[in-house]
Amino acid sequence: MRTQVAIIGGGPSGLLTSQILHRAGIDTVVLEARSRAHVLSRIRAGVLEWGTVELLRRAGVGERMDREGFVHEGVFLSARNAQFRIDFVRQVGRPVMVYGQTEITRDLYAARDAMGGVVIDEAEGVTLHGLDGDAPWVTYVKGGTEHRIDCEMVLGCDGFHGVSRRSIPKSALSEYETVWPFGWLGVLSETPPVSDELIYANHERGFALCSMRNRNLSRYYIQCAADEPLEKWPDDAFWAELKRRIPAEAAERLVTGPSIEKSIAPLRSYVCEPMRWGRLFLAGDAAHIVPPTGAKGLNLAASDVHYLTQALIAWFRDGEAEGIDRYSERALRRVWKAERFSWWMTRILHRFPGQNPFEQRMQEAELDYLAGSAAAQTAMAENYTGLPF
Ligand code: RFL
Ligand code: PHB
Predict the structure, then answer these.
(1) Percent of the chain with pLDDT over 90
(2) Is position 24 within any domain?
(3) Which residue's CA lies nearest to atom 26 of ligand 1?
(4) Per-residue pLDDT at 158
């Protein structure tokens, strides 16, 4: 098989890239290791920056999001000495959209199918070849047979554990990483959300977050130990712990019910530089990971896709190399700022093992400052709703 662009990974980064390139007349093949049912059952991100919303609309996949998504003009933060709302629209003139990653992936698959896009699922043993030349190729096994795709570019959109980043020689990469000393226990339940807007809570027993997917689907998280067994958290224990950590009036209102999904996610900050090696370009979680506190992971994937598709369109249409040559530098400037914001949100909201009273007071002062300063709220709102592409 031959294509212009081989895309490794059929998550949001890979599908959105394929969709935008196809609309620009560029031929792509997407190789996904898992089944479509598996990809569509993942429960992940929920908050979209306004730039992500606009990118999805431009890609022709915004219709259901605009109909079913929820525009949030602000967010609540709660801590012992401060409980307050940050009004995004007042501070920076733009809201965010609450619309699940699961739904975006579904919309992207439907759009790819409608345009006759090629997405090969259950592709095993994907291997990248000839990345340092100008005629790379990719091999994979499907149904016991090995296949080969010749292409001009390879895009690594295969997440943190994918094969793409590992195909770059270690000596060509710089990696920066912090593993946080806790995880998030997440629960999805078919209950009405406790609040119209998200609540991020700093509590002495640990962080908690109230989020949502729709009017009858809630998503809640509590900080837990990264290596805790899930069996430690039957539904009753989860709800009881969540109630302790969120503001009292929210705890009173909280409607509980059986969990329909429950999982523990470790928290990591990670960046790999550069995001390009020869004919291989990395995008999304393949190149960087943020802790979920700032709701930046999917949004960073979207901004990478924006820079990368613009660069590839200029290259394929006009033979213009400036965009692909500067892709890594452009994307990384935004990546590092989102890393900083996610790191800051994580630091001010969680309980750290061995946190001493001074550090505790620093956290309280950060939150108190944020509660009382329009300047601090503007900075928070500017980052949360998304820095410009
Ligand atoms: P994905 O979604 O991991 O997709 C990569 C795809 O590549 C496939 N793959 C391979 N395919 C072929 N060959 C191989 N060797 C392969 N290896 C892997 C995988 O099967 C998969 O289908 O990466 P992508 O597309 O870059 O998208 C990134 C986002 O998924 C991620 O950043 C977000 O989910 C992060 N995130 C959040 N981001 C936000 O912007 N807002 C949020 O509110 C938010 N909340 C979250 C989150 C992530 C979470 N978890 C569980 C990690 C909440 C949680 C709990
Ligand atoms: C979610 O709804 O899953 C969600 C929302 C905000 C975050 C992280 C996750 O910061």
Answers:
(1) 97
(2) yes
(3) 284
(4) 98
Which ligand lies nearest to the CA atom of residue 105 in the structure? 1
The span from the CA of 329 to the CA of 368, in Å, is 36
Helices within 95-173 (DSSP H only)? 101-114
Within a domain: residue 196? no
Using the atom order of ligand 2, give the atom closest to the CA of residue 44.
3
pLDDT at 321 over 80: yes
| pLDDT, tens only, 174-225 | 999 999 999 999 999 999 999 999 999 999 999 999 999 999 999 999 999 9
**Ligand 2: which residue has its CA nearest to atom 2?**
46
Which ligand sits nearest to residue 198's alpha carbon? 2
Distance between CA atoms of residues 181 and 165, nearest Å: 25
Segments forming the whole domain that contains residue 145: 5-47+101-177+268-346
Quote the pLDDT of residue 186: 97
pLDDT at 43 exceeding the cut of 90: no
Closest ligand 1 atom to residue 299 Cα is 40
Number of domains in the chain: 1
Tokens of 50: 């306004």
Catalytic positions, written as ranges: 72, 200, 292, 296, 384
Instruction: Say how many residues make up the chain.
Output: 389
CATH number at residue 127: 3.50.50.60
Residue 44 banded pLDDT, cuts 50, 70, 90 = confident
In a domain, 194, yes or no: no
- Is the pLDDT assigned to residue 81 strictly greater than 70? no
Q: Which atom, in ligand 1's list, is nearest to the CA of 42?
A: 51
Question: What is 168-229 written as a DSSP string?
Answer: S-GGG-EEEEEEEEEEEEEEEESS--SSSS-EEE--TT--EEEEEEETTEEEEEEEE-TT--
Candidates 15, 29, 44, 262: which one to mutate for ligand 1, based on the most atoms within 8 Å of Cβ? 44
For residue 339, is it within any domain? yes
